[in-house]
Amino acid sequence: LLHLGRPIMAAKAFRGWRHSWLSREAIAFVVSAAACGVALAAPSTVTAAVGAAVAVVAAFASAKLYMLPARPSWDSAWTVVAFVASGLATGGALHAVLRDGDGALVSAIGVVVAVAAHVANLVRLRSSSELERRGTWTLVVGPLRPWFVLRLVSACVAVAALALGAPVAALVAVVITELTGRWLFYVSVVPYSIPGAFFRGRI
Question: What's the mean pLDDT in 183-199?
Answer without folding.
Answer: 76
